[in-house]
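Tokens in:
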């Protein structure tokens, strides 16, 4: 068991005062070395997504910040099919290898995202190898198996958990009509879980989706999870992406889904948390990746900084979310924000391109925001 934070602080402060530092300085030192990951160590992992830019430029400042503050990392893009395996026979290992080295080097929990998804795939994934027309069922199964065996195999023992299948369920309508479903039927999910498990039996395997507060969607997911467990399909967790707004979904809606998944016998991971503070228009309250809403100035009201009142609302929102997560700390393994600082969030370009959004815990200068302090304070005061 890691030493409790209180003891850690007491001990480091004592050591510092021995070194004749002022009390104030000692406190700052002790707190400075205590990132969110440490504060929440006894509760759940605290993660972030690592962008391609950070990996390409090997951005020291960002990597140091991540190592200090977080205990888990997710590949934001570099392990997606279209990036790591852009065409049959071609693998791009450079960025994922860097991420794996970084996570191993810092003893961080690494999330592989994602093995099977309908978006950001290789261009030719669903085409017949002979060219023209759709790929056959057998050929797609072969491709899928080879992809999973190669990727999971390369990082066996290094990736702690995989988002095996991403976004296979529609809002209130059951399975999403993706090429995966059309060509293979719902069986593609369990195939994915079995192959990943065969290659790395120690890896935790998750189903991940957005809008998991939607009761119809959540019930459908909980049902197939139960069915998988009954039939011995190796699934260990459900990922709730949690791309949320300031006042929706409600805490009660999120809570109901956490309970549903926990009751279905799996752990819950909050996998892609961010809080969109910008005004919406029809379609903009979704994380459906194909949604596009045109830019207009009224949808981008704060290009030069978030007003103080909005900062406070954002902090209160993060606080209520983390209070909820703490309430279910036994059922929640990890809470991951989808990026670290506001300059790099996908929310600057989704679903409206070219906006200035403020959904994360660190600002554009990589400084902790009020939202960060609110999340930290829940532990500091406890
Ligand atoms: C997003 C990335 O953040 C963007 O950089 C990329 O352009 C598109 O995908 N759900 C998911 C993530 O599971 O993979 C998506 O990530 C966000 C929605």
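Residues out:
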């Amino acid at each position: 068991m890691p030493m409790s934070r209180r003891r850690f602080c007491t001990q480091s402060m004592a050591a510092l005062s021995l070194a004749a530092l002022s009390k104030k300085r000692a406190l700052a030192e002790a707190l400075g070395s205590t990132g969110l990951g440490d504060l929440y160590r006894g509760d759940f992992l605290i993660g972030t997504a690592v962008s391609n830019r950070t990996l390409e430029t090997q951005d020291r400042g960002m990597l140091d910040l991540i190592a200090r503050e977080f205990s888990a990392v997710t590949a934001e893009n570099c392990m997606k099919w279209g990036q790591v395996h852009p065409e049959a026979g071609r693998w791009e290992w450079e960025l994922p290898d860097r991420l794996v080295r970084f996570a191993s080097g810092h003893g961080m929990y690494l999330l592989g995202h994602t093995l099977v998804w309908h978006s950001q795939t290789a261009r030719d994934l669903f085409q017949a190898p002979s060219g023209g027309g759709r790929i056959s069922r057998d050929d797609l199964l072969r491709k899928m198996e080879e992809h999973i065996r190669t990727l999971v195999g390369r990082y066996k023992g290094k990736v702690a958990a995989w988002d095996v299948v991403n976004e296979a369920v529609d809002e209130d309508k059951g399975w999403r009509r993706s090429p995966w479903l059309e060509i293979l039927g719902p069986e593609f999910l369990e195939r994915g879980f079995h192959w990943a498990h065969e290659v790395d039996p120690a890896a935790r395997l998750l189903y991940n989706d957005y809008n998991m507060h939607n009761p119809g969607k959540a019930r459908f997911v909980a049902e197939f999870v139960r069915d998988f467990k009954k039939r011995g399909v190796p699934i260990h967790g459900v990922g709730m992406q949690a791309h949320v707004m300031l006042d929706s979904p409600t805490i009660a809606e999120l809570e109901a889904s956490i309970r549903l998944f926990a009751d279905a016998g799996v752990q819950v991971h909050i996998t892609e948390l961010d809080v969109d503070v910008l005004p919406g228009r029809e379609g903009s309250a979704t994380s459906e990746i194909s949604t596009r809403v045109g830019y207009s100035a009224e949808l981008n009201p704060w290009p030069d900084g978030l007003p103080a009142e909005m900062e406070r609302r954002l902090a209160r929102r993060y606080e209520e979310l983390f209070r909820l997560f703490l309430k279910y700390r036994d059922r929640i393994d990890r809470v991951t924000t989808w990026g670290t600082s506001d300059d790099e969030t996908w929310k600057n370009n989704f679903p409206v391109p070219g906006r200035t959004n403020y959904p994360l815990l660190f600002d554009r200068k990589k400084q902790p925001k009020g939202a960060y302090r609110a999340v930290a304070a829940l532990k500091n005061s406890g």
